[in-house]
Amino acid sequence: MTATYTFDVFSSLDGFGAASGNWTGYWGKQGPELLDHRLAVYSEEQRMVFGANTYRAFARMLASSTEESEVRDPWVTRMRSLPATVVSTTLEGPLDWPDASIASGDAVDVVARLKEESEVPLRSHGSLSMNRALMAAGLVDRVQVTLFPVITGQTGLDPIFQGAADFDLELLERRTLDGHIQELIYRPTHHV
């Protein structure tokens, strides 16, 4: 049996994964429904998969945060407690993550193997370039986009699907959180 792989990403309406300027985390739009839902999603048994850059960013953010900061929201703390595989050809252990291992090599090969061997679903939050490559290889089963009601045309960073292949998306689930945040879960298939 092949494990399901979910590419989980936060996005502005115009497709950016982050922004500079005076935007805060979640673009300042988070509320209790979003945070409770994220904790429920991450409470399920699963294995996290990160690229090296995303792992470094998470480790840096967590190391410089305080217990009270939004970086330490309960779902993030739960995500950090899940087993994780970091795909990298440059990192060396030990990693500053409780149950993480490094898988050296091409992400497509690593994730294809993980999908065959894992007894739990696989999930990646962020890791944009890695997940674009995994989508192109047909290894992403679900794209979970949490869409925040902002446009970051001047300050947007990290275009999520820039350079991605073309895909048709089948909507599997949708929900509105806190009255203004959309969570959309799609099954991607290559557009031919």
Strand content: 25-35%
Structural class: alpha/beta
- N→C terminal distance: 27 Å
Which fold name corresponds to the CATH topology? Answer: Dihydrofolate Reductase, subunit A
- Please tally the β strands and state the result: 10
Q: In percent, how helical is the residue content?
A: 25-40%
Reading off the top of the CATH hierarchy, the class is best stated as Alpha Beta
Number of helical stretches of at least 4 residues: 5
Structure report:
The chain is an alpha/beta fold and 192 residues long. The chain has one domain: 3-Layer(aba) Sandwich (Dihydrofolate Reductase, subunit A), CATH 3.40.430. The strands form 2 sheets. An 8-stranded mixed sheet has the order 5-4-3-6-1-7-10-9. β9 and β10 form a beta hairpin. α1 packs parallel to α3. The protein is globular, with a radius of gyration of 16 Å.
Concise overview:
With 192 residues, the chain is of the alpha/beta class. Helix content is 28%, strand content 32%.
Distinctive features:
192 residues, alpha/beta, Dihydrofolate Reductase, subunit A, 8-stranded mixed β-sheet, 32% strand
